[in-house]
Amino acid sequence: MSEKPTALVIDDEPQIRKLIRIVLEAEGYRMLDSDSGRQGLSDIALRRPEVVILDLGLPDMDGLVVLRRLREWSRVPVLILSVRDGPEDKVAALDAGADDYVTKPFDSTELLARLRAIQRRAPYGTEEPYFQAGYLAIDFNSHNVTVKGHEVKLTATAYALLKVLAQHAGKVVTHKQLLREVWGPNAEEQSQYLRVYMTHLRKKIEIPEAPEKLLRTESGIGYRLVLPTGKGIRQ
C-alpha cells in the first residue's frame, strides 16, 4: 500500500461524498469520487484505488451489479455504505463479493476501522480489466468482446464460458469446472451443454485463416484457451 492510500467513493449524493472526504483526508487518504456505477468501474480500472466505498442506490445501475462486474476481474477491497439495512441486503452484498458492509448514517471511527481491516486482508498483485490473446480482446467491465478490432455479439452464456476460459488462459479447464462455473453445480454431468456452446463460441471468435486456433479441445479432459502471442493488456 502506498504512503497515502487512495480511496474511491462511488455515491451519487454530493453531501455524502463531501462528508466522507473530510473523514478520509483527515486520516491521510487521497480520495477520488464517482457519482455513477459506470463511471466508478471506469475509475477503478484507470486509477487503481487501494480501497472502494460503494453505495448500492446508484442512478444508473444497482450497486450489486457494479460489484459483480468488478469481481469478474478485481479483488480490490470494497466496503458497502448504504441506507439499506436489511439482513437480506447485507447477505446479497457479501455474497456478491463485498468485503464489509456499513449502514448510513455511519460513525466515522467505525468506517475508518473497517477500511483498515479490509485493506489488511487485501490480496497482493496487479489485476487488469482487459484480456488480450492474439486477435481476441475482452473488456471485463463492459462485457465487450472484439476479434481483430470488430465487436462480437455473444449470448450471456457464451460470454460466461469465454470469461472462465480467459481467466484460466493457457491452462486446461475441465468439463466439470466449466459446467459448474457457467451453469451451476447441478449441471456437472450435462456435457451436451458444453459441446453446443463451444461450437457456437468457436464460430464467433475463431478466424479460419489463423495459423493456430484459440480454443483447443483436450480430449476427455476439457478445453483450453491458448495464447498465440501471450496474454496482454490493451493500451
Helix-strand layout with pairing:
Blueprint: E1 6-10, H1 14-26, E2 30-34, H2 37-47, E3 51-54, H3 63-70, E4 78-82, H4 87-95, E5 100-103, H5 108-120, E6 130-133, E7 136-139, E8 144-147, E9 150-152, H6 156-167, E10 172-174, H7 175-183, H8 191-205, E11 215-218, E12 222-225, E13 231-232
Parallel strand pairs: 1-2, 1-3, 3-4, 4-5
Antiparallel strand pairs: 6-7, 6-13, 7-8, 8-9, 10-12, 11-12
Helix pairs in contact: 2-3, 6-7, 6-8
Alpha-carbon Rg, integer: 20 Å
Q: Strand order of the main beta sheet, please?
A: 2-1-3-4-5
CATH architecture descriptor of the largest domain:
3-Layer(aba) Sandwich
The helix tally amounts to 8
Query: What's the CATH H-level superfamily name of the largest domain?
Result: Response regulator
**What name does the CATH topology of the largest domain carry?**
Rossmann fold
Give the overall pLDDT as a whole number.
88
What is the number of beta strands?
13
Counting structural domains, the number is 2
Distance between the terminal alpha carbons, to the nearest Å? 24 Å
Specify the structural class. alpha/beta
Name of the top-level CATH class of the largest domain: Alpha Beta
Categorize the overall geometry: elongated
Could you give a short account of the major beta sheet? 5 strands, parallel
